[in-house]
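Box S2. Input/output pair 1.
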Amino acid sequence: MKIKSQRDFFAGIMFAAVGTAFAVGATNYTVGNAARMGPGYFPLILGVITALIGCVVMFTSTLSKATDGDRIGRIAWRPLLFIIGANIAFGVLLAGLSSIKLPAMGMIIAIYALTFIASFASNEFRFRSVFILATVLAVGSYFAFVVALKLQFPVWPAFITG
C-alpha cells in the first residue's frame, strides 16, 4: 500500500496514539461494564473509538486522490508555542506555583491570561476583540463551573478575597 496523503496518514497516527494512550491510562481505574460503569469506563471507550478513527484515517490515506501526495508543510512554530504556553500559563495561574512562591491567581485572571497569550498565535491581534472574548469566557466559565456545577476552586486571587 502506498501512502497518497501524508497529512491524513500522520493525522491518523496522532489520533491512534492519543486514543491508545487514553485507553491504556483508563485501565488504571476501575472500568466496570456497561451496566455498572466505573470511572475508567468512559475514557476507555472514548480512547478505543479515537484509536479506531485514527486507524480508519490512516487506511483512507492510501485511497486518497491527492495528486501531489498531499505533503505536510512546515511546522508553524509560533502558533504552537503560544498555544502551549497559554495552557501552561493557565494552569500555573489557576493553581499557583509554590516553587517560585506564586500564589493561585484564580480562574478569572487565568482565563484572561490564557486568552491574551493564545491570541498572539495569530498575526491579527486586536486588543478589543480579545478583551471581549476573554470577558465572555470568564463570565461563562464562572456561571458554568462555580454557579451551575458548584465546583470549589479559587475564582479570584487570595490577596483580593482574603
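Box S3. Input/output pair 2.
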Amino acid sequence: MLEERLKSWIREHQPLMADLQRVRELDLPQCYIAAGYIRNYAWDILHGYDRSDRHSDIDVVFFDPDDASEDRDEHLERRLKEETLNPKWSVKNQARMHIKNGDGPYQSTADAMSMWPETATAIGARLNPAGGIELICPYGLEDLFGLRVRRSPAFLKREYYLERVLRKEWASQWPLLTIFED
C-alpha cells in the first residue's frame, strides 16, 4: 500500500520522472535516485506543502564492483550536470563507498543503503525498462510515511547521526517529524 502511494507521488512529479528517465539511460547496474530527493519530496507532501524540491543534491547510487573508479563517477556526474544545467547531481558507485564509510565491503546497492544514517533516507526509485517505477527501501517505508527520523540499525555512529539531524535542520523545515535520538 505505501509502495503504491509513493510510486503514485513520484509519477505526479514531472521533474523527478525526467531525472529518473535520464538516470535509466545511463544503464548502470542496480541504479537508483535515492536519499533526500525522494525523502524530502514525500515529507513535503505529508506536510501539505507545495512541492519545493528541497534537496541539496540528486543522489544517484549504483553497484558495479567491476569498475569502482572514482573517475567514472565524476565523469557521469559531469555529464548529468552538463545535460541538465543542474549542479545538484551526485553519482556514487556503492561498490567502493564502504572504504569511505569504514565498513566492510557492500554486496549490493540495497546492502550499502542499509548502512546509511537514517531509515527514511535509505529509499530510492528507478524506472525499469518498461517505464514502471521500482523502489528500493531496505527498512521499508513506514518511517518515511510516519514522519519518523531514526538511526538505521546498521549505522553505528550515533553521534554522527545526531549531528547530521541538527545540521540538516529537518525539524524546522518539517515540524511534524518525530526525531528519535536512539
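Caption for Box S3: The longest helix spans residues 70-84. The chain has nine helices and seven strands.
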